[in-house]
Every structure is written in structure tokens, then in C-alpha cells.
Amino acid sequence: MLVLKNRILAEGRNLGKGILKVDSFINHQVDPMLMMAVGEELARRFAQARATKVLTAEISGIAPALMTALALKLPVVYARKSRPITMPQGAYTQEAPSHTKGKVVELIVSPEYLSAADRVLVVDDFLATGQTIAALIKIVERANATLVGVGAVIEKSFEGGRAGLVGCGVPVETLVQIIDMSDGRIVFAD
Amino acid sequence: MLVLKNRILAEGRNLGKGILKVDSFINHQVDPMLMMAVGEELARRFAQARATKVLTAEISGIAPALMTALALKLPVVYARKSRPITMPQGAYTQEAPSHTKGKVVELIVSPEYLSAADRVLVVDDFLATGQTIAALIKIVERANATLVGVGAVIEKSFEGGRAGLVGCGVPVETLVQIIDMSDGRIVFAD
User: Fold this and answer.
1) Inter-residue contact A91 to A127 (CB < 8 Å)
2) Residues of chain A contacting B24 with CB distance shorter than 8 Å
3) How does pLDDT run across B109-168, given as a tens digit for each residue?
4) Can you tell me the ipTM of this complex?
5) pTM of the model
6) Lesser CB count within 10 Å: N end or C end of chain A?
7) Is some CB atom of chain B closer than 8 A to the CB atom of A32?
8) Distance from CA of A172 to the nearest CA of B (A)
9) Do the chains contact at B113 and A35, CB–CB below 8 Å?
10) CB–CB of B32/A75 below 8 Å?
């Protein structure tokens, strides 16, 4: 996705240790027009998946997942990282390590909004080690729902997350792939 | 906003103590089409405000603020509640009490994305006691930016938040106003 690649080249910052700062347009300040284009592109790639629901994790997954769900005309569920007082017992929970927070967080989804009848498209901002996405997939399994695809905005291929998702047997689509961030570079796959 | 009022009547739950459960369409599961309509209506009401930026607080403010910003073709900034490793020093911070978490949280905005040149529209999901919105306004002031308006999706008038915002001297727009939630009821202003 050229517009996204160009934006990363213009505004992304390689902070070292594989950390890509994109908080001027994705995860602190958000460019809604870019995010709409991202959502439309992910929706296009999964147009045949017959999803009934988009699932993401708060916080930075919300914007791209919301726009993907808008384009697909589907509800979007974001897994909570703390249990709100409005959530009933019996929630699906799954631990996932958070890189940016340096600790393990719990992802929590109410059974009210994910059921065996659902065909679920998982969307997140990054596919890096894949551990957040793997946790979301475990929640889909726990709900006896059907996973139909995984989409992410930016893939850090050098962190190997895609390999861990092969066993899911669903299409994995990412809009740009970064293959190298060593020595301050940001190198794309193509 | 009739479509929103009807949705609250159909799916909202009065959990007592002024807590309105709307997590089937606003803040766990989100209806993107409804949120788009919400964003377009808030954008219409602030069309003359000449805002340069929309400001909200993670987590549940993100969806309505993103859609408002999309309709206004502006960037949206969401205040973080924990400092990501990508954020530089010198951030604007302001404490705000969180009702649903029962504790004080810190709202954090990077000075990279809010400056004296900005005209800021603050958007959140709820206007209740107004303390989250007041904290966002303090961050606007700290950045020497200009507050041009405050918008919220649902106002719980009986919690009195609007009175505390009068001193700001900007328009405060909410899309539905709930005046009473005693005895299990959900009573709208009109």
C-alpha cells in the first residue's frame, strides 16, 4: 500500500530495538483519512471471507479495526485490557505480552459479543511477534467462533510473527512489510 | 439525535448508580455505522468552529472522536493513560478520576501533537461529571492551544458536568441528554 509506505518513510522513526514510532498518524495522533484508506484496503482483501464480526485489541487496534468494520458494514469488538464494571462474569480472557508496556496484559471479551455463530476477522495495527494476534485467535477459539482471516496494518517481518499464524489456516494480510530495522534503517519488502 | 436515542432505549441497560451500559454499540462492541452518523452530526454542529485538531481520551473516546475527525478532515489525538516508550519527555499530563475503573488516571499528550497554533475540539463518549473533559481542556490550556468546542455522544445531565464547563466559554454539544436514571429508568430530556 504505497500511501502507507510513503507515510512511514516520511514520518516513521526507527527508535532502535525494532521499535517503530508511528504515533503521528496511527497510535497517538491518528490520520482518519489514512485510516479510512487502510480500512477500505483490508475490507477489499477480506471481501470474500463472509465475516460477521471484526475483533481487535484496545488501544491502538481500534482505529484500523473500526475503519475495516465500517467498510465491511460489520460490528467491531475490541478486547478490553481491564474489566469494566459493566461486563458480566464468564468473559473470555487470554494473556498477551505487551511490548510497549513491558509487561503481560490480559485481553478480555464479553461472551455477549462473540459466539459460536460468528465468523471473525482479527485486525490489529501491527503484526510483529504475533503474540497479541495469537491471543485474540485463542479468544475466538474459546468462543467456538470461526476465524476467517487476520489483517494488520504494518508487518515487522523480521520479528517472525507470521510463521506462528500459519497453523491457523486462514489468510494473513498486511498492508506493508518491513524486513529490516537494523542500524537505524526502515527497509520494506518491496 | 433520534437514531442514538432509539438505540439506547433498545440496547442500553441501567445498571444502577448512574451507570449506563452501552457496550453493545459504543464501548466494547462498536457499531461503526452508528459511530459514523455520530461523527457526522458532531462535525455538522462544529462546522463553523475552524478546529485544526480533535482531542479525546483513550479508550472509549476514540471511536466517536475518530469519526468526527474524519467528517471534519482533521487529525485526532487521543490522550494516553500510560506513557508509551515512543513518547518523548515534556508531555502534557493531567490527572482525571475514572468512574468505571474507580481510580485516578493520568492523561498524557505529547507536545509533538498539540501546540499553540491549534484550535481544538474536545470529543468524548460521555459527558457525565465532566472531569475527563475538564482534564482534556487543561491539557489544551497547558499547550497554549485554543479550545473551540466540546462534544459528547451521551450526556448524563443529572451528573451536572455541563455546569462545570460554562466557564470555558465555548459551545458544548451532546447528541442525547439523559436527565434521570433513578429506579431503573432511562429518561431523556425530550
Assistant:
1) no
2) 112-113
3) 999 999 999 999 999 999 999 999 999 999 999 999 999 999 999 999 999 999 999 999
4) 0.96
5) 0.97
6) C
7) yes
8) 23
9) no
10) yes
